[in-house]
Amino acid sequence: MRLDEFDPNSVNVEDQRGSGGGGFPAGRGGQVGCGTLVVALVLSYVLGVDPGQLLGGLQQAAPQEQTGAPAAGSNASESCKIDQASLESCNALSSLNKTWAPIFAASNAKFQSPGLVFYSNVGSSGCGSAQSAMGPFYCPEDQKIYLDTTFYQQMDQELGATGQFARDYVIAHEYGHHLQKLQGISDQIRSAQEQNPRAANQLSVRLELQADCYAGVWAAKNKDRLDKGDMESGLNAAHQIGDDTLMRSAGRNPNEASFTHGSSAQRMEALRRGMDNPDDNTCNVYMQK
Predict the structure, then answer these.
(1) pTM for the full model?
(2) CA angle 239, 130, 155 (to 5 degrees)
(3) Taking Cα atoms as reference points, which of 139, 136, 118, 117 lies closest to residue 128?
(4) I need a labelling partner for 256 at 20 to 30 A (CA). Which of 21, 61, 71, 75 fits?
(5) Which helix H or strand E contains 250, and what residues bound it?
(6) By three-state DSSP, how is residue 198 classified?
(7) pLDDT tens digits, residue range 186-204?
(8) End-to-end distance of the chain based on CA atoms, in angstroms?
């Protein structure tokens, strides 16, 4: 996907990657193996479950490590240009802001762009501890997307989700959760889950599929930026992170009742629905079931 370089004034970026704003602590590699990663992804990849509960549980299970505020003197330009993965993430964020802000304005709805926080291995968020094994996630408490960019390597090498658009899809999906927060959708779902715990997983799947659809709408509205093979790359990524595929990779038999994000087929269908239709209202279907 051919995106313009981000505008430093249009993106809210923080960096928790060490005191210099860009260093990766030694020992990151090897702490999370493929099996551990896949099991963690079944639970939390692209934020399907209640982040407060999930992250709070991890806080109890592991020592809290505060990496601190962004390093003095660091800014969006410096943080976004540390490496190619960071630059791609910031470019995607900038494009998403430019795409969704006018849509909200046209509906006279209040819009606020989300923050993007880079961290390495362990970080801190408004929802509690951030851990690389959880994959990228959106925290509704502080309205920020959290990302350890080494996850992109794991997508490519361990999940078979390759290509730049697969990585852009990750950011666009998390951005979709931010759109749900702004519209009050995520709060409504969380309330419904509390009132009907038996339907919690099913409701979570709806939230995830709508976020996938929003990612597709963003792509549709920027179709002139898509390269040959981008759609296939995105759909493959959606397939690789379906609950059934992840469960099989973890050596488990898929159990639809325990799905929190949707099957591979459902996630591919949701992304394709958005990519085939630039009208964001097409994604409302996941809240009407």
Answers:
(1) 0.82
(2) 25
(3) 139
(4) 61
(5) none
(6) helix
(7) 999 999 999 999 999 999 9
(8) 33
For the stretch 26-39, pLDDT in tens is: 233 332 233 333 43
Give residue 153's identity as a one-letter amino acid code: Q
**Which residue shows structure tokens 């350890």?**
148
Please, are residues 117 and 144 in contact by the beta-carbon 8 Å criterion?
yes
The pLDDT tens digits of the residues spanning 74-98 come to: 477 789 999 999 999 999 999 999 9
pLDDT, mean of residues 1-26: 71
Residues pairing with 13 in the sheet: 116
Residue type for 187, please?
Answer: D
b (16+ CB within 10 A) / e for 177-206 = bbbbbbeebbeebbeebeeeeeebbbbbbb
- DSSP string for residues in 151-176: HHHHHHHTS---SHHHHHHHHHHHHH
Asked whether the beta carbons of 154 and 167 are under 8 A apart, the reply is no
Quote the crossing angle between the two packed helices 84-106 and 200-221, to the nearest 10°: 90
d(CA 172, CA 181) in angstroms, rounded, equals: 14
* CA 257 to centroid of chain Cα atoms: 23
Rg (Cα) of the chain, in Å, rounded?
A: 18
